[in-house]
Write a structure and sequence with these properties.
The complex is a heterotrimer.
Chain A (H helix, E strand, L loop, with lengths): L5 E3 L1 H7 L2 E7 H10 L5 E4 L6 H12 L5 E4 L3 H13 L4 E5 L1 H6 L1 H4 L10 E6 L14 H5 L5 E4 L3 H15 L8 E6 L7 E7 L3 E3 L22 E2 L12 H16 L1 H8 L3 E4 L5 E5 L1 H16 L4 E6 L1 E3 L3 H7 L5 E3 L8 H9 L6 E2 L12 H11 L5 H4 L1
Parallel strand pairs in A: 1-10, 3-4, 3-5, 5-6, 6-8, 7-8, 13-14, 13-16, 16-17
Antiparallel strand pairs in A: 2-9, 7-15, 12-14
Helix pairs in contact in A: 2-3, 2-8, 8-10, 11-14
Chain B lengths: L28 E4 L2 E4 H14 L4 E4 L1 H4 L6 H14 L4 E2 L23 H7 L4 E5 L3 H14 L3 E5 L10 E3 L4 H17 L48
Parallel strand pairs in B: 3-4, 3-5, 5-6, 6-7
Antiparallel strand pairs in B: 1-2, 1-7
Helix pairs in contact in B: 1-6, 3-6
Chain C lengths: L17 H9 L6 H4 L21 H12 L6 E5 L4 H5 L6 E3 L5 H15 L6 E7 H6 L2 H9 L5 E6 L34 H8 L3 E5 L4 H17 L3 E6 L13 H10 L5 E4 L1 H18 L1
Parallel strand pairs in C: 1-2, 1-3, 3-4, 4-6, 5-6
Antiparallel strand pairs in C: 5-7
Helix pairs in contact in C: 3-9, 5-7
Classes of the chains: A alpha/beta, B alpha/beta, C alpha/beta.
Chain lengths: 389, 237, 291
């Protein structure tokens, strides 16, 4: 069924189209973005807390905003079917959470190498064991070495904007690798926030499978003798160099995505109060809490800087280094036990000793602003009276 | 201006051009040795390479080899016109991207899984990639830069290639003709005399004469031959 | 018309390797099956020629039949997985997708649906070709669910009753008692009932056979493809011995296949009434055209 949408480019859609304010959940925000992205096919498989997203995407399929939708057998089947459909040249969306992401990981980590453009929603969740359905973003650590582009949304508005941007970035001819949009399960997916959205009469222009760095496997584009992707090993006078340069090409593609991060989501970082002695660096939900800590500090007359990292891959190393150039203490609050963001920040700056390892919460724990404040007081040599009172 | 990307061989494990800070040129501009320059500047340097280096070769890829789009006829004609203006120019196609069994004929084709073989065997010191899908062009260009001393030129219909010594983007038939004009101009400046000549056709191996084969030619494998010369097996039962 | 994507640009024809030009001039693309089908193998440029399979490989022989039997090679995409088969399939002049382990039927589900969206008026055949391990062990769930979902594509299982490519390990399709790697004391359960599983899961056309007869093999392949276009999933379970792992002397490979035909690979064909009706229509139409 055709809904007679007006097709527009992503610059107009994201940056110019008039918007109206809505009060919706993060899951709704993600599906509202999918609704405006001219998605051809979405493939669903349930897992809490992601399911809500693909339920809503199912609804918009039933309404005619998406052409094809089905529930697959499990995540490996889902992610493999995405890879198959991508070879056919259609625009794709799916979403998963924690253990589901890991079940689909074999297929997911092969998407970049197979040059599969698609958007993957990651609605974060604890990884077993023991089982829990609560938010914890440790699964993102597993994606960080896959080659895919990774955006991390702080709230419902980011979830909407980043998801739309992801559809544009993934199909750029010099990128053409998958883009994941992560946000915290429940904290964002099931909580409402204000989201400014453009009219649903507008939609992103349709994909051109021939404007691509690899041939679509659709019997319409040469060469006819093509294998995607051939095992590059053994005989045929091949050197292992082919695999090396192929890997380089994926990470180069990842690197090339940075200019589109600037174009569509205003760069990989948001920096408040730059040049402060104490800087808080955070992504996703932790950035929301860090933003609060920044506000508390301002109210108390303490000068604290805030850096929100919107883009985990490509990793904005230069930008981070610049933002933290004069910092004396860097606090990295996170929703996971290993501190993947903290490790990245430490590796990006020459004086990693200034980075405080935390505060971290995990297993579904919330991240009270007071935990971050305590670190700020410690860094400034103040008594943390707030928590003791 | 310092050259970020130079003619190889850069060695065993090449660093990719993007990881060395090379970025694709904006629309209307080109890349020369990894630096953003005007199209004219890149074309002149590329033309000089094709005119002065040994065994200049054009590698047309699937997007211009097959008649899949309306613009292919015009584009392929323009490529051949260009080739005719380059003294001693050869055309060696990259007809597909799969690893081919048992091996490619290095005189007849180039393959992205081991492009160095064709370059080295034919002693090609300057080449143009055109009509090759970007992913495979990037792999090839990097492997060529790693292991050969060939000057690479990318004439890309899309965004260009960081790995090439000279990269022209958004190339259509008119741009190929413009490059040809630049090349003729440079050729005249260099005082090279040349009458347009079409490149030699594909030197595919001469057809084997199956008629003269005898089972004895198969040696120890002769037991594998199911049918005798001239015999036609329609049904195994 | 998608035949264009394999016709050389006229200017470039003389610069292409002979191999590619001959594929268009003497290959089966866009031609009548009566002239370039299995009956005429050896008289036209086939889609698979050189391949790296072992000497005497029955699988390589069957793969050649698959490609010669295709009703519409210019609009066909094959999908496979790890295993010997892909070494030959990948040399065919038909696009081949090689994904991850055992994912072929999930990939085909996505691809078939994508084709139906993008080309509602063009029939594009999707065929998955994988071994017993890829289809019934590691890919089992994806194989079965594609059938349950009634995905319209053809599944061909090249059953050599062993993991050949990885060095001769027991598979779910090995017979009980077979002493193989990873079953050093002999396999302690029998062959999985692939054909019954396919019928139960909703395949509209299922064949089990040992391909000793080229025409009979081709007929089954073509029926499977025709039925998949219109009716639902189809499945061919075919015996393609591994003469290396089962130590079958090359001259005895055919004899072995004949023996299997009398044994556990005796020809069995299942079709739904709708499939039967379809075949009657398609096959009588062909006869009329020929006469």
């Amino acid at each position: 069924m055709s809904l007679n949408k007006k097709l527009v480019d992503m610059d107009y859609l994201l940056n110019e189209a008039p918007r109206e304010k809505h009060f919706i959940t993060g899951a709704q925000a993600m599906s509202e973005a999918v609704k405006r992205a001219s998605v051809d096919m979405a493939i669903a498989y349930p897992i809490t807390p992601q399911s809500e997203v693909m339920h809503l995407v199912g609804d918009i399929y039933a309404q005619g905003h998406i052409k094809e939708y089905y529930r697959a057998e499990e995540e490996l089947g889902t992610m493999s079917a995405i890879a198959g459909a991508a070879r056919g040249g259609v625009r794709l969306f799916t979403a998963t959470s924690g253990p589901g992401l890991l079940r689909g990981l074999e297929a997911i980590v092969s998407w970049p190498g197979h040059r599969v453009p698609c958007v993957l929603g990651v609605l974060t969740r604890v990884i077993n064991a023991p089982l829990s359905i609560q938010p914890d973003n440790i699964e993102m650590a597993y994606l960080m070495h896959s080659g895919m582009v990774m955006l991390h949304a702080e709230n419902q508005q980011d979830t909407f904007d980043f998801t739309l941007a992801a559809f544009a970035i993934t199909e750029k001819v010099d990128v053409y690798i998958p883009v994941s949009v992560s946000t915290e399960g429940f904290f964002v997916t099931h909580a409402k926030g204000y989201v400014e959205m453009m009219s649903e009469e507008l939609a992103f222009t349709e994909p051109d499978p021939y404007h691509a760095p690899v041939p679509a496997m659709d019997n319409e584009v040469p060469p006819a003798r093509i294998q995607r992707d051939a095992p590059v090993q053994k005989s045929n006078f091949m050197s292992y160099l082919i695999h090396s340069v192929w890997q380089q090409e994926i990470w180069d593609s990842n690197r090339r995505a940075m200019k589109y991060v600037y174009q569509y989501i205003d760069g990989p970082l948001e920096v408040q109060n730059p040049g402060s002695d104490v800087m808080i660096v955070a992504s996703g939900c932790a950035a929301a809490q860090a933003r609060e800590a920044h506000r508390y500090a301002q109210e108390e007359g303490i000068s604290v800087g805030f850096v929100k990292v919107k883009c985990i891959r490509p990793w904005p190393k230069d930008e981070i280094r610049e933002a933290l150039a004069t910092a004396k203490t860097v606090i990295v609050p996170e929703h996971n036990i290993i501190g993947w963001l903290c490790k990245e920040v430490k590796a990006a700056i020459p004086n990693s000793g200034i980075v405080v390892e935390g505060p971290r919460v995990y297993g579904g724990m919330t991240l009270p602003v007071e935990l971050i404040m305590t670190e700020i007081y410690d860094a400034l040599g103040m008594d943390s009276l707030v928590l003791q009172a | 201006m310092s050259k970020k990307i130079t003619v190889g061989p850069v060695g065993y494990m090449p660093q990719s051009a993007p990881s060395m800070g090379v970025e694709l040129s904006p629309e209307g501009q080109a890349l020369l040795y990894g630096n953003v320059v005007s199209e004219d500047e890149a074309m002149r340097d590329a033309a000089k390479a094709m005119l002065t280096m040994q065994n200049p070769t054009i590698f047309p890829g699937p997007q211009v080899l097959w008649d899949w789009r309306d613009d292919v006829a015009d584009k392929s004609a323009a490529i051949l016109d260009l080739a005719s203006e380059i003294p001693n120019c050869k055309i060696i196609p990259m007809p597909d991207y799969r690893p081919k069994y048992p091996k490619i004929d290095v005189k007849a084709e180039i393959n992205p899984n081991h492009p160095n073989l064709t370059i080295l065997d034919n002693k090609i010191k300057a080449c143009i990639f055109i009509g090759v899908h970007c992913h495979y062009a990037n792999l090839s260009l990097r492997m060529i830069r790693a292991g050969t001393d060939c000057y690479t030129i990318a004439m890309c219909a899309m965004m260009g290639h960081e790995e090439a010594m000279a990269s022209i983007r958004d190339v259509h038939a008119d741009d190929i003709r413009r490059f040809k004009d630049v090349l003729v101009e440079v050729r005249n400046e260099l005082g090279i005399e040349h009458t347009p000549t079409m490149p030699p056709e594909n030197p595919s191996l001469p057809e084997e004469d199956w008629g003269s084969l005898t089972p004895a030619d198969y040696g120890e494998y002769r037991s594998l031959i199911m049918s005798r010369k001239g015999e036609h097996v329609a049904d195994v039962e | 018309m998608s035949l264009k994507y394999m016709i050389p640009a006229s200017k470039f024809k003389r610069y292409l390797p002979k191999d590619y030009v001959e594929l268009v001039d003497y290959g089966p693309f866009g031609k009548d099956y009566a002239d370039v089908g299995v009956k005429n193998m050896g008289t036209f440029k086939e889609l698979v020629e050189e391949h790296p399979m072992c000497s005497g490989c029955w699988m390589a022989y069957y793969i050649k039949i698959i490609f010669a039997a295709l009703p519409n090679p210019e609009n066909t995409v094959t999908i496979g997985t790890a295993g010997c088969g892909r070494l030959a399939i990948s040399q065919a002049a038909v696009p081949f997708i090689y994904g991850n382990y055992g994912d072929q039927n999930a990939m085909a589900s996505g691809l078939t649906r994508a084709f139906r969206l993008r080309f509602p008026d063009i029939q594009k055949d999707v065929i998955t070709i994988a071994g017993d391990g890829g289809m019934m062990d590691i890919g089992f769930s994806m194989t079965m669910h594609a059938w349950f979902r009634r995905e319209k594509f053809t599944t061909i299982m090249l059953d050599n009753e062993v993991y050949g490519n990885t060095g001769g390990q027991e598979s779910g399709m090995s017979i009980e008692g077979a002493v193989l790697k990873m079953s050093p004391k002999g396999k302690n359960f029998g062959k999985m009932p692939a054909m019954q599983l396919a019928i139960t899961a909703g395949c509209v056309y299922v064949v089990k056979m040992s391909p000793t007869n080229i025409n009979k093999s081709a007929k089954a392949i073509r029926r499977a493809i025709f039925a998949a276009r219109n009716l639902g999933p189809t499945f061919i379970h075919v015996y393609t011995s591994c003469n290396i792992e089962y130590s079958i002397p090359t001259p005895d490979v055919f004899r072995d296949a004949k023996e299997m035909e009398k044994g556990r690979f005796a020809f069995e064909e299942f079709m739904t009434p709708e499939a039967k009706e379809l075949f009657a229509k398609v096959e009588s139409k062909k006869k009329r055209e020929v006469s």
